[in-house]
Amino acid sequence: MKRPKLKKASKKLTCSKKYKIQKKVRDHTRKLRKELKKKGVSKRPKKDPGVPSSAPFREEVLREAEQRRQQIEEEKERKRTAKKVERAHKRKKEKDGSNKETEPKAKKAQKDVVETQSEKPPAPDKNSKQYLCSELNKVIDASDVVIEVLDARDPLGCRCPQLEEAVLQREGNKKLLLLLNKIDLVPKENVERWIQCLQQEFPVVAFKASMQIKDKTVQAKKQSRIVASNEVLDRSRAAACFGNNSLTELLTNFADTRQNEASLKVGVVGFPNVGKSSLVNSMKGILACNAGVKRGITKSMQEVHILKNVKLIDSPGVVASPSNPPASMALRSLQVEEGQDSVQEAVRTVLKQCDHSQIMLQYNIPDFRNSLEFLALFAKKRGYLQKGGVPNSEQAATAFLADWTGAKISYHCKAPENHGISAYMSDAVVAEMQNGWDLNHLKAGNEETLKGVKFPIRSSSIGFISKGPTAGLLSISEEKPAAPAAEREAEQNEPEQTADEANETEEAPEKPQKEALKKQPGHVQFLSVPIDISHSAAKTDDAYDFNSHFK
């Protein structure tokens, strides 16, 4: 019944009517059950109980059942797709037969254009070395200022002489800046010493990029943390960013002094995992470029406007030459991702350049003899275990390399006492590179950056032996042939020895034998060792006499 002053009638029922409906439903279901019982039909199909957990070979049975189910689904999908293709082909054939004579000329011409466009050459492989080198050259050509990003933990190993020489030789009087990133992972004295050494050639900027920029909302959160005083409120290593104000003012002042009205283009170059994309994101304040621990994320150049008259250009990492030492290849190149080297070999080369006692203190593990034992202890410490409690060495090696290439582990290289300029540099080139920059303002900005950063203690930082500048490739034709796989494997499989043990093993009688083996590669030779049996038998009292039993 529709009540007055209401648009819709109420759906409420009286109790008697509701109970009457429920009774009719029960009677109806009872009647259906009786009819099914007379026909001999069971109530409902029983549910498959599955394979019991205590059954032997349970995992194999489940795996086979899953594979069988996937095969059936794939077969059904294949038949369904074949029917669709057949129907579409039949439909197209009927349509072409009916409209072949009545098709206008304009449609025919348009169809020909579409067919010619579909025959374009395939897109280039963005993972190839040739494509990465071409993108890097594009960034250098398009830039007015080139910033070479260096990892403060190994600044000398992050420098690429071929890249710096190419920038100096390009037309347009391009400027080159050196930027020390990840300074929060190095002791303060070490950073100051490296700045003094590197600024003898190029202007140096101290920087620490932010690692927590995810979207545009982070910029507002970060601005709310800023206080009026000179002290920094947020001192956490991941959230804070230091040096961006100094670098922004430096680039802005340089752009104002230029006579060209066009915006200043600044190229950001360097080896993988030095923080190029993180630098661009920190300068912009939002997530403008993809960044991560995995090496080689950036594949092509990308322009980002940070100011009205300043534009940053992100670039892919410099391709390392195979002629570099193994330690440099493990930290600077993409050999592991390319499948040329295993992660265990990369860990072994890195551990060779470190002190074992410092590694033990850093990871809180007992003493180890070699890299395999270290990976086993490290896997147990992190919980990387396989079935039966076996340590997962590969997962542990991947995590170890991620710590070293990312911004997590603190290690440092000792700066040289007497650092001279490079061979391709001269006093005139040094003066030209430092001309046009406000060096006093840059020095004050670096000092302010060093005051705000929270540096690690020297005792908690791992000492690392640098192998010097890393050679890079700017074109694929410059790539030198790598050493044979057998020689590299033999070099990596050498037992780790100290200097005294190496001197003891290098004896004069063994040298001619080694030279004889090297003269005939590919042939196995067995060298006899003279043994005086009579002398050895005389010293042993329990020597066995074969003549007493076998006559």
Indicate the topology:
Layout: H1 15-39, H2 58-99, H3 105-118, H4 129-142, E1 145-151, H5 155-158, H6 161-169, E2 175-181, H7 188-198, E3 204-206, H8 217-225, H9 244-257, E4 264-269, H10 276-284, E5 302-305, E6 310-314, E7 319-320, H11 326-332, H12 335-338, H13 343-352, H14 356-363, H15 371-382, H16 393-405, E8 411-412, H17 427-434, H18 439-452, E9 462-463, E10 472-473, H19 485-492, H20 499-505, H21 510-519, H22 533-539
Parallel strand pairs: 1-2, 1-4, 2-3, 4-6, 8-9
Antiparallel strand pairs: 5-6, 7-10
Helix pairs in contact: 9-18, 11-13, 13-16, 15-16
Radius of gyration: 36 Å
Task: Determine the fraction of residues in helical runs and give it as a percent range.
Answer: 40-55%
How much of the sequence lies in strands comes to 5-15%
Query: Low-confidence runs (pLDDT<50, min 5 residues)?
Result: 217-236, 478-542
> Total helix count?
22
- Average pLDDT number: 76
Between the first and last Cα atoms, what is the distance in angstroms? 126 Å
What structural class do you assign from the helix and strand content? alpha/beta
Strand order of the largest sheet: 3-2-1-4-6-5
Outline type:
elongated
Major sheet size, sense and barrel closure:
6 strands, mixed
How many β-strand stretches? 10
Explain what you see.
The chain is of the alpha/beta class. It contains 22 helices and 10 strands. Helix content is 47%, strand content 7%. The chain has a 6-stranded mixed sheet, with helices on both faces. It has a two-stranded antiparallel sheet with strand order 7-10. It has helices at 15-39, 58-99, 105-118, 129-142, 155-158, 161-169, 188-198, 217-225, 244-257, 276-284, 326-332, 335-338, 343-352, 356-363, 371-382, 393-405, 427-434, 439-452, 485-492, 499-505, 510-519, 533-539; strands at residues 145-151, 175-181, 204-206, 264-269, 302-305, 310-314, 319-320, 411-412, 462-463, 472-473. Helix 9 packs antiparallel against helix 18 (439-452), helix 11 packs across helix 13 and helix 13 (343-352) crosses helix 16 (393-405).
